[in-house]
Amino acid sequence: MNTTLNTLSQGSPVSLSEDVDLMKILSGHIYFQTLYTAVEHDLFSLLYGKKLTKNEIMQALGINEKPCRILLLGLVTINLLHKENDLYANSKSADTYLCNQSPNNIKQIVRFEHFIVYKPMYHFYESTKKDTNIGLCEFAGDEDNLYERLSRTPELIKIFQDAMQEISKLANTEMTKQIDLAGVDYLLDIGGGNGSNIIALTERFKEMRASVFDFPAVCEVATQNLNTQSQKQRLSAIKGNVFVDDLPTGPDAIMFCHFFTIWSKEKNLLLLQKAYKALPAGGRVIIFNMMQNDAEDGPLTAAMGSPYFLTLATGEGMLYTWQEYKDLFLQAGFAKIDTQTLPNDHGLIIGYK
Q1: Block means of pLDDT (10 residues each) for the chain, length 353 residues?
Q2: What's the confidence (pLDDT) of residue 6?
Q3: Could you give the CA distance from residue 342 to residue 332 in angstroms, rounded to a whole number?
Q4: Domains in the chain, start-ordered, CATH in brackets?
């Protein structure tokens, strides 16, 4: 793009094409669709550990020369591919995150962004004006949140759960390594999705039982997953709505992973109060989330994640600060509160009854 603004900055013409940061923002929709297209073609897996020419890539993908050339040009300019003479190769990022061969691949997160998040984010401006999730109009149904509307479409539930599993795999590994659940007999994971969290935690804590508590359609997916595990006798999925139904009896630890970002602070307080009431003396509530800095100046993950919760998920939530969570724990009656910083802008806040 060679557009030159007819304005002056300190007496000199300003070239928009030289403002790289702004150009990336203006072209963000194209960048993302270039990434998604390459992922759907499985181009990065094709190039894993090798270098290929444009003609070889064309033949492997089964596409014509012009669209192949356009796709490769885009990928090179956003540094997902490198081009040396006539040969194309993956960048380090592509090898790490976008190939089937990598244990850290995020291809399902890319598909989640494309099929679930991309269209609704068109409504971000209107959502800021109305302070609600206008983007939900992109999904059929009359429910007021994304998660219940997704239950109408099994294909979208699978895309969503597959992406959440990848997010959990990336973010939760350190949590499962570092969290101390010694002495916990029964863990209840509210909104636990397909059970990835409780599978990992019961592998580490061999005597602990654990359950997912989630919507019926989600529990069907979770049950299938849990039944494939060697410790399946200690695992279960319980159908329910945490805002409507009583919590299952018996847990001495209740976990909310990536859950409090979904809801308003008022609803989060009600959840903490409900959990406090359900726990025995000495029981604990665990929040595991990406965290916003107390100064409200970052990190990038908080800035990028929060519009999703406003515009689509519920219209209520965002990534809150550490202090906001601690204040909610105190209001709910928890006298002892521990915090633990984790990688990838995540953290643990644990309140003890």
Answers
A1: 47 72 92 98 97 98 98 97 97 97 94 97 98 97 93 90 82 88 96 91 96 92 94 96 93 96 97 96 96 96 96 97 97 96 94 97
A2: 47
A3: 24
A4: 4-105 (1.10.10.10), 172-352 (3.40.50.150)
Task: Tell me if residue 338 falls in helix, strand or coil.
Answer: strand
Tokens (6 digits) for 171: 């973010």
pLDDT at 9: 47
Residue 188 contacts by C-beta under 8 Å, 6 or more apart in sequence? 210, 211, 213, 247, 248, 251, 253, 254, 255
314 in Cβ contact with 120 (< 8 Å) = no
Q: Which two tokens stand for residue 189?
A: 């994971």
- How many C-beta atoms surround the C-beta of residue 29 within 10 A? 12
Distance in angstroms (rounded) separating the CA atoms of residues 234 and 268: 28
Q: HEC string of 195-251? A: CHHHHHHHHHCCCCEEEEEECHHHHHHHHHHHCCCCCHHHEEEEECCCCCCCCCCCC
Structure-token match 């992922």, residue found: 39
8 A C-beta contact, residue 34 and residue 74: yes
The token pair at 344 is: 């990838």
Q: What is the largest CA-CA distance in the chain?
A: 74
